[in-house]
Design goal:
about 500 residues; alpha/beta; Aminopeptidase; about 20% strand; binds ligand BES; binds manganese (II) ion; binds zinc ion
Length: about 500
């Protein structure tokens, strides 16, 4: 399925579309577009409100199925809440309400007016972008593995419109960014939702190559022999327990001078995490197919960034493997030597994410990064600490922390800072090696980050624990596509 987004400056009464979607504030306070339609349709909108057919809550929608006097046949009105209190939150609620309403409609062409909506802290371009991102997320489906995919329009046409012609350029820009991010998000969702028997490290590598060809990104895939040569003993110790060969995916996008130091995104691409010999309990183990969502986020962000042709150098790196129990798998107590030379005592084979990431983080030093951000579904402890709303942010650089918090807020893909103090480092002491791969019961998300910190000294680095944010559980089980929009926003803010 695809969604085609366009933008237009038009008077609502002159617009031809399957549905015209216009907003109204509480107390019969119409947006200009709603007012124009109401005037031309002999008060069709006002009568609907008077009849009490539209609940007073931002996001409530109602359909007026047959109208006369204008160029379109149907109007959808949606609530924005009180005009005086109009806020980002209200806008988001309103837009989600519209997106939810659209899913069940029969026609596939929609024109949504965002005229006469003003937010204090966001511009119209941001609003257009939210409409695009929200509706494409809501229209997203993953049913390609079902025998009979659900019937629905092949292509959706969503037009974001305004009656204020001066804001059209800004809306265009917002739609363009929103489209690029949505494609990255959908790709990340698809990869996350694909099961472990399809989405293997080799599959991810092939996907990366495909994105590279389409988007002018230079893609290099290191196989196990090459990693062996580089001394990636930690990463390879994880993949030894699996029949799927590990891959290290490197994607280079050059949008600026070749001497500009790159932003580097590193993702955990663990395509299935059974825990290894320290095997996980059976309940919900299927969800460990999502353990590659950090890697999927990197691929998605690279896709978006290349589509936007941003003037910056970005490198995406994904360390990809499975973690399974096997005769050759890591055993608790095993000691491996990482590419950095640091030796690691593997006290729990289920703490494998850090084992593959540490070698990727050592590898990227050769690119002399301006900043490195890794994303990993690293610890259940992070979900306990922060729940499902923000990703955990671990960073000892205050400027980078601020930039990520800010990018999280404007992309609505939020992060929350956690301490990364040296005080925790001693929990990783080992009697037999330089470091242990677990730090005991306390502060599990922090000690995991502390482990990675040992491999990123002298780099400007942040770690995102996305274990709580990368997928939903329960009835809405499925990948969320995070942190694609955060990554892209971070890069946009630097450009
Ligand atoms: N991929 C898991 C983390 C995870 C667990 C994410 C549950 C989301 C939900 C990671 O590889 C892992 O198993 N971590 C262990 C670390 C522990 C052994 C120190 C964990 O969190 O239990
Ligand atoms: Mn694990
Ligand atoms: Zn894992």
């Amino acid at each position: 399925m695809s969604v085609i987004f366009t933008s237009k400056s038009v008077n609502a009464t002159e617009c031809t579309s399957g549905y015209l979607v216009v907003g109204i504030y509480d107390n019969k306070d119409f947006t200009t577009s709603a007012q124009q339609l109401n005037d031309k349709t002999k008060g069709a909108i006002a009568s609907l409100i008077e009849n009490g057919d539209l609940a007073e809550k931002p996001g409530s929608c109602a359909l007026i199925p047959i109208v006369q006097g204008i160029k379109s046949k149907r109007i959808i009105i949606f609530r924005l809440g009180p005009r005086k209190e109009f806020s980002t939150k209200q806008f988001n609620l309103a837009i989600s309400g519209v997106a939810n309403f659209l899913v069940n409609l029969t026609a596939d062409s929609v024109t949504l007016f965002i005229s006469d909506m003003h937010l204090q802290d966001r511009d119209i371009s941001w609003m257009a972008r939210r409409v695009v991102e929200t509706s494409s997320q809501r229209l997203y489906r993953f049913d390609q593995l079902k025998k009979k995919p659900k019937k629905r329009p092949k292509t959706w046409r969503i037009q974001i419109a305004t009656d204020e012609s001066k804001s059209l350029a800004q809306i265009r820009q917002g739609v363009r960014i929103g489209k690029a991010i949505s494609e990255g998000v959908s790709l990340a969702k698809d990869l996350g939702n694909l099961p472990g028997n399809i989405c293997t490290p080799t599959y991810l590598a092939d996907k990366a190559r495909e994105i590279g060809t389409g988007g002018d990104i230079d893609v290099e895939i290191l196989d196990e022999d090459q990693m062996e040569e580089l001394g990636m003993g930690s990463l390879l110790s994880v993949s030894r327990g699996s029949r799927e060969p590990a891959k290290l995916i490197i994607m280079k996008y050059q949008g600026a001078d070749e001497n500009d130091r790159p932003v580097i995104f590193v993702g955990k691409g663990l395509t299935f995490d059974a825990g290894g010999i320290s095997i996980k309990p059976a309940g919900a183990m299927d969800e460990m197919k999502f353990d590659m969502c950090g890697g999927a986020g990197v691929l998605g962000a690279m896709l978006s960034i290349s589509q936007l042709k941003l003037p910056i150098n970005v490198i995406g790196v994904v360390a990809s493997s499975e973690n399974l129990p096997d005769g050759a798998a890591n055993k608790p107590g095993d000691i491996v030597k990482s590419m950095s030379g640091i030796t690691i005592e593997i006290l729990n084979t289920d703490a494998e994410g850090r084992l593959i990431l540490c070698d990727a983080l050592t590898y990227i030093r050769r690119f002399d990064p301006a900043v490195v951000i890794d994303a990993a579904t690293l610890t259940g402890a992070c979900v306990v600490a922060l729940g499902k709303h923000p990703s955990g942010l671990f960073c000892s650089d205050s400027e980078l922390t601020d930039a990520l918090v800010c990018a999280g807020n404007s992309s609505e893909d939020r992060v929350w800072p956690m301490p990364l103090w040296d005080d925790y480092q001693s929990q990783l002491d080992s009697n037999f090696a330089d470091v242990a791969n677990i730090g005991g019961r306390d502060a599990g998300a922090i000690t995991a980050a502390c482990f990675l910190a040992r491999f990123t000294e002298e780099m400007k680095w942040a770690h995102l624990d996305i274990a709580g944010t990368a997928w939903n559980t329960g009835k809405a089980k499925g990948a969320t596509g995070r942190p694609v929009s955060l990554f892209v926003q971070f890069v946009l803010d630097r450009c």
